[in-house]
Design a protein that fits this description.
This protein has 323 residues and is an alpha/beta fold. The chain has two domains: 2-142, Rossmann fold, CATH 3.40.50; 150-284, Response regulator (Rossmann fold). 45% of the residues lie in helices and 19% in strands. It is built from eleven helices and twelve strands. It has helices at residues 2-16, 35-40, 57-73, 86-99, 115-123, 150-164, 182-198, 214-227, 239-251, 267-275, 286-301, and strands spanning 46-51, 76-81, 103-107, 128-131, 144-148, 172-177, 203-209, 233-236, 259-264, 280-283, 309-312, 315-318. A six-stranded parallel sheet has the order 2-1-3-4-5-11, sandwiched between helices. Helix 4 packs parallel to helix 5 and helix 6 packs across helix 7 (182-198).
Length: 323
């Protein structure tokens, strides 16, 4: 099975070799060679990118940032969707190794289990970078991790929630979580710290996982609204979670009574904030994460050592910003 996969990808590379720089794959496997020299020879270096959920608006923006920056350097990106499946993502890394790409970027679905795939890439002398979500495995070496400062982002979300509930007596808040993900762990950490610091009267009554998915988040919110009749606010760890909660709040006839704070500020969330059905969002810059990931790889190719952690600042988006 694995050998057939290697042959298939080798054929695919041969066919793609004559295409434009955005879709071709004529890259050298020598990670230290000059990228400009590679581009001059026709095709540049190939970079494999496996994204845990390519359908998410956040990752689409991140990919666009990667593609724009890669084009500047003459690099080719091979971007694949893991579809929130660890086994599939592991296999995709193996495919990249078979293709002899010059570097691999991973947005892990399972931060712990991805370690074994990183080890395989290390053994093949292919540098590995992570974007948005870090590897927490004790296995494998990652050259650099590029992500939002998610603790700061959680603090920003907490600030929004404190502001939204400042005039509410005995306020209560629920978190719609995804605790398996390292970036989300940081967001929730920052959120809780900010509530404890600046609005300690706000009580967190529930912290429930919905896997970052809108339908599950809506189901979770339905249950939360039933169990906590006086719930004052919901923090969704991404916009799918927040928008799922918003749908439930609207269906329960409690719009304006339950403040919803999300994370990402996707176009759909911004529209909801402008309409007043969400209070606000911590705003990430996924395009910058994508750009800085390619910049870190470019530095590595040039013989420079990137910082092991490259943090992208997080801001806020409220109705005032939507005017």
């Amino acid at each position: 099975m694995y050998s057939r996969k290697r042959i298939a990808f080798a054929l695919a590379l041969a066919v793609l070799g004559g295409c434009s720089s955005q879709n071709s794959s004529g890259g050298s496997s020598n990670a230290q060679a000059s990228p400009e020299a590679g581009a001059a020879q026709g095709g540049g270096k190939a970079i494999g990118v496996t994204i845990q959920d390519r359908e998410a608006q956040f990752y689409q923006a991140m990919e666009a940032g990667m593609r724009e920056e890669a084009k500047k350097f003459g690099y080719t990106l091979h971007v694949v969707d893991a579809n929130r499946d660890n086994a599939k993502q592991q296999s995709q890394v193996e495919d990249f190794i078979a293709q002899k790409v010059a570097a691999i970027v991973i947005t892990p679905y399972d931060s712990t289990a991805i370690g074994s795939a990183i080890v395989e890439a290390n053994n093949a002398k292919i540098p590995v970078f992570t974007a948005d979500i870090a590897s927490t495995s004790k296995q494998g070496h990652v050259v650099a991790h590029i992500a939002s400062n998610n603790v700061q982002g959680g603090i920003e979300a907490g600030t929004l929630m404190c502001r939204a509930l400042k005039d509410v007596a005995d306020p209560t808040v629920a978190i719609i979580d995804e605790p398996e993900v390292t970036s989300v762990q940081d967001r929730v950490k920052g959120f809780k710290e900010e509530l404890a610091k600046d609005c300690p009267k706000v009580k967190i009554v529930a912290d429930v996982s919905a896997g970052g998915q809108r339908t599950k988040a809506s189901n979770v919110a339905d249950d939360l609204l039933q169990r906590h009749r006086n719930l004052s606010g919901i923090f969704g760890i991404n916009d799918d979670s927040a928008l799922g909660a918003m749908k439930s709040v609207q269906a329960a006839g409690r719009s304006g009574k339950v403040a919803i704070v999300g994370y990402d500020a996707t176009p759909e969330a911004r529209a909801a904030i402008k309409a007043g059905t969400m209070y606000g969002d911590a705003i990430q810059h996924p395009d910058q994460i994508g750009k800085l990931t390619i910049d870190a790889i470019h530095d590595y190719f040039a013989g420079k050592e990137p910082k092991p952690m490259i943090a992208v600042p997080v801001g806020t988006f409220t109705k005032a910003d939507a005017q």
